[in-house]
Amino acid sequence: MAKAADSASLEAGAGESKPTPTIASSPLEYQKLVGRYEASDDVYVSGSVRAQHDFGASAAPGTTLATGPDWVWLLSLGAAWDVNKHVTLGADVSGSPPSSRSVASPFSYPSPPATLSSTALMLARSWSVGGSVDLTYDTFDEEAPHDVDGSVELSVGYTRFGTEQSMTEFDSPSGQPQDVGAFLAGCAATATPLCAAVQRASQQLSSGLGQWRLGATPTLTFKEETDAALDAALYVYDKNRPDQAGFYDYRLPRGGGEVATFGAGLPLIPPRWSLRPELGHRWKLVSVRGWYQLTDYTIPSYIGHAVGAKVQLYLDKWRIYATGSYRADVSLNGAEDNAQTWVAGVGVTRQF
What we know:
This protein is mainly beta. It has a domain at 101-137 and 144-351: Beta Barrel (Lipocalin). 5% of the residues lie in helices and 65% in strands. It has two helices and 17 strands. The chain has a 14-stranded antiparallel barrel with strand order 1-2-3-4-5-6-7-9-10-13-14-15-16-17. Strand 9 (205-222) and strand 10 (226-237) form a beta hairpin. The mean pLDDT is 92.
């Protein structure tokens, strides 16, 4: 960012979203606006706004309850200061305002002598807020160009994720959808374990997750035309099982230790660490970048593979580009809850 001229970019795209193994796949479309401004010779600021529309998903086999649509906004504001010609200090804040979505998710409850599995519709209101700081050292010198230059960026960031949920519908023992309010009205006369579980799940339940990210990115640039980078990140959480945030176990009163489980989780698969090599080259009018990312998730035996690319055309002060990525989150123990997502977009940048 600190080397970029004043500019504004507009991007739009579409794809397939599956933020967690619990949430069903659904189409998405998005728009993104990014601006960069050189406040002085050594201070730069940037900001971005991204709006994503997730469409409703199809119902899973065996139920008519389906995950609904939502709008998710992501806002960010950053600044960088060139301390000297080799050192840059940066900081940014970002956040996603609360967005609501009805999520079809697993619901299990005791019905002696067995535990029954069902599907429930959880009205989930989710948000996030965070920030980061980074320090970059590079060897670039405009007065004495090198055939090979290098840089190292060190960063630390924190993000807080939050969710509030309540059950609105569920598949009753008969297999038909049941409105929670109507069902609880009939529980006064005949209290059952199912009544107790639904009563608890109908209340507004809150959950949060704090995530620290420690990152390092060394980069080599050859003759100012080709660069190779490796981004490495380690994630630390304030919970022992971050993948269980937003899921709830409720021990039934006056029972024999029976537990009901429900919840939509958080709209993310928490990573434990990631490695992302990236390679880019620019010709006179065209540049191409490609990357691969390996992610180890906190979900046991669950890893992610992602690839992406960006092609950009330089036309004086205008830049036209196309970008895309594909991600497959794979269970190594043979489970069938693998997640696959992709996104593709086109954009234009105007430099001033």
